[in-house]
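INTERNAL AUDIT FORM
Audit reference: QA-55
Scope: verify that the stored structure record matches its stored sequence.
Auditor: D.O.
Record contents follow.
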Amino acid sequence: MTDAGSLPAAPTSARIDTLLPAELVAVARTVLDANRAIGRTVAVAESCTGGLVAAALTEHPGASDVFIASIVSYSNAAKIAHLGVGSDIVETFGAVSIATAWAMAQGMLNRSDADIAVAITGIAGPDGGDAKKPVGTVVFAVARRGGDPENVHADKRFFVDNGRGGVRLQAALCALELMMPVDP
């Protein structure tokens, strides 16, 4: 246990508006505005992004009228316990798979009042990748309220391995893009 004397002092004179990259904050604003305009709410189930998408959305005052909930399910056990992902899915396909992302999105939708849920699971690195799933492999899924649970959109993408932070940023930007309304 650390004693309070060993913690860095909180800044007293400097105003900090955001710790996040400006591009991420700007895209989150666009997502909020676009969904607000159509009266749609969103939720997110994050793994490799560790809450980065939720953090970007909540950078904006008033986000709660669009952004409903987030679950960061970093471990397999959390995916199973908090999102209802079947252990058989994780064991059979792995945490970074279309099946797991699909189950995460559906689980987030079932655990929130949101109209749309986006799930992200991947390998940010620097370790954890292999020949079949290299660092930079990220899988996304989108589930919509009232939609057919068998018709959850899921997609695997490969991002340039430009470091752990770079992969996480690319994944967060992609997840936000998936929250944008699409024309029917």
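Auditor finding: record pair retrieved intact. The chain has a mean pLDDT of 92.
Action required: none
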